[in-house]
Amino acid sequence: xxxxxxxxxxxxxxxxxxxxxxxxxxxxxxxxxxxxxxxxxxxxxxxxxxxxxxxxxxxxxxxxxxxxxxxxxxxxxxxxxxxxxxxxxxxxxxxxxxxxxxxxxxxxxxxxxxxxxxxxxxxxxxxxxxxxxxxxxxxxxxxxxxxxxxxxxxxxxxxxxxxxxxxxxxxxxxxxxxxxxxxxxxxxx
Length: 189
Known about the structure:
The protein is of the alpha+beta class. About 30% of the residues lie in helices and about 25% in strands. It has 4 helices and 9 strands, in the order βααβββββααβββ. It has helices at about 30-40, 45-65, 125-140, 140-150; strands at about 10-20, 75, 80-85, 90-95, 100-105, 110-115, 155-160, 165-175, 180-185. The chain has a 4-stranded mixed sheet, with helices on one face.
């Protein structure tokens, strides 16, 4: 039996994973719409990694919601941001850049996360872009909608995540989290 995970009040959990380490067999957890979307993704390297990112998302959501991973119903929000049909209080978001993936989960309100590979060094533009992407994903409005929402005064807290020298990460939350707990996914976890 898999241990159910809980998030302390106000906290955010951030998971980091190497999608190359996600066993291909776990993609059997995906629904028909997810499989169809995966089949349409180009280039082939992204088509191979996207289903793995969704399979791990399903595994994490199952551990936090107590629902079976293969029967989770993900519904698109107004602007397409997915949410759980049977656990509206579990907020989540994912991002991946190549094989590096980040997942954010909270029970206190919307979250957004972004990751970008930085090459040899991270410049100011890439840092700003990563922070902006996380904020947009937290708001769930898409790039165009986020600009309008931001202009209207809708604000989110955004912080950078230390991912080492070759990647940048940012987390956005609807309020300042009292704690951010970081986890690394390992095969067999």
